[in-house]
Amino acid sequence: MEKFHIVRLGCPKNDADMDILRGILENKGYKYEENAENSDMIIIDTCGFIENSKKESIDTIFEYNSLKENNPALKIIPIGCMIERYYDEFREELNEADGLFGVITPQMIVDKIENNEFFYKHPFPIDTYKCEYRYIPETPYAYVKISDGCSRKCAFCSIPYFKGDPKSREIEDIKKEVEFLIKNGKKEIILVSQDNTLYGADLYGKQSLPKLLNELNKIDGDFWIRVMYLHPDFINDEIIDAIHNNDKILNYFDIPMQTGSNKMLKAMGRIKMRENLLEIVKKVRKVPSILRTSIIVGFPGETDEDFKELLDFVDKVEFDKLGAFIYSPEEGTPSYNFKNKVDEETKAERLDELMSLQKDISNINLKKFENQIIKCILEEENDGVYIARSWMDAPEIDGNVFFKSKKDLLKGSLIKIKINETFDYDMEGELVD
Predict the structure, then answer these.
(1) H/E element holding 3?
(2) Which domains does the chain have, with CATH numbers?
(3) Does residue 125 surpass a pLDDT of 70?
(4) What element of type H or E holds 305?
(5) Choosing a second label site near 19 at 20 to 30 A (CA), which of 26, 91, 267, 315?
(6) Tens digits of per-residue pLDDT, 250-295?
(7) pLDDT tens figures, 326-362
(8) Euclidean distance between the first and the last CA atom of the chain, given in angstroms as a whole number
(9) 53: Cβ–Cβ under 8 A, 6 or more apart, which residues?
(10) Which residue has the higher pLDDT, 162 or 147?
(11) Which residues are annotated as a binding site for [4Fe-4S] cluster?
(12) How far is the C-alpha of 228 from the C-alpha of 225, rounded, in Å?
């Protein structure tokens, strides 16, 4: 029985893929090996989005390749986004790899391995998969990928150039996967893709995220669904209403607005300007909701005045959650050759100033929840301290809720916590029976 190990890098979309891949391999009789050193095959799912993620992927490949010193028969097989983006270069120069797969479906990876074909780059368009088998993660939540690819072509983003136009999975297939996960104890389902507002346009002739959400909301059970990655240019009233009106769908809006300067929005290739974004905020918050965004600082041409407009925008909106990133020039994207580059020191200073502002905003926003009872999901226990996550917080990127209890609580349970104290991003409370 061949033993395999999977190394997961990059975004939750990769996690979703690797849960499917592991499930298919195990169904075929392969055995998952937690200790990479004892495996026969290590599959490394790479990320090729920005420079730091590419460096991490390359470093990881060489790190695991060093295991061959004690296990010469070990196969190292990098796969995924970075391989797709630079396949020809890696095929020629990465002699350490025993296989290379670009962005292909988990089933195709298994088929190739079974046929002893270890090098393959899929031509456009990419494919999506049906979920016949999948690994059930130990976490209380699971990522479910509803489509792959993107046609938005924002000036800073390389994804459309190595993934191509979006391909959506059928609603029934997604629903079956979610039902399977709920039956096996998952309490949170997180829908992911490059842009969830695109979902279904290729299959059903129009944006179909509302239809998908309406169907998933019919599934029996005590669980919740979180929707990530909603492009601001294409979020619409129907999508907002579907999130607001379905009781199992969390009122959590992840809308990456990137900047608050109209000049920068135009340079980034965005359609909706600052005033349009503020209108979206108003519609989202007509029902109590959590609003998360992503911001890029240091985009080419960003002046001090543009940055001040960004700070003013963030201060005005008072985002509940905000992630910020320093602009990374990516070859092949329109912005790669833009002039008026911002120097690295200025980028770092702007990032610090932005996150200092957001810390203050978050602190004030969280104080509103003191003495309130909030529904949470129990994540783990550490030396008598339980770590939970509220419905307002996505895993790995948002905050936590800490509490102590003498009860023996089951990981993954949905619980209620009375919030006693709040901090910059986290909260502390007590269990409510």
Answers:
(1) strand 3-8
(2) 1-123 (3.40.50.12160), 373-432 (2.40.50.140)
(3) no
(4) helix 304-317
(5) 91
(6) 999 999 999 999 999 999 999 999 999 999 999 999 999 999 999 9
(7) 999 999 999 999 999 999 999 999 999 999 999 999 9
(8) 48
(9) 9, 10, 47, 82
(10) 147
(11) 11, 47, 81, 150, 154, 157
(12) 10
- So what's the pLDDT on residue 389? 98
Confirm if 376 and 401 have CB atoms less than 8 A apart. yes
**DSSP 3-state helix, strand, coil percentages of the chain (rounded to 5)?**
35, 20, 40
Which residue, among 144, 166, 14, has the nearest Cα to 82 in the 3D structure? 14
Cis peptide, bond prior to residue 106, ω within 30 of zero: no
Q: How far apart are CA 36 and CA 64, in angstroms?
A: 8
Report CA Rg, the chain: 22
Return the pLDDT at 153. Answer: 83
Please report, in range form, the residues annotated as the binding site.
Answer: 11, 47, 81, 150, 154, 157
Residue 175's identity, in one-letter code, is: K
Beta sheet of 3-8, edge-to-edge order: 31-32, 3-8, 41-46, 75-80, 100-101, 119-120
HSE, CB side, 13 Å, CA atoms: give it for residue 136. 12
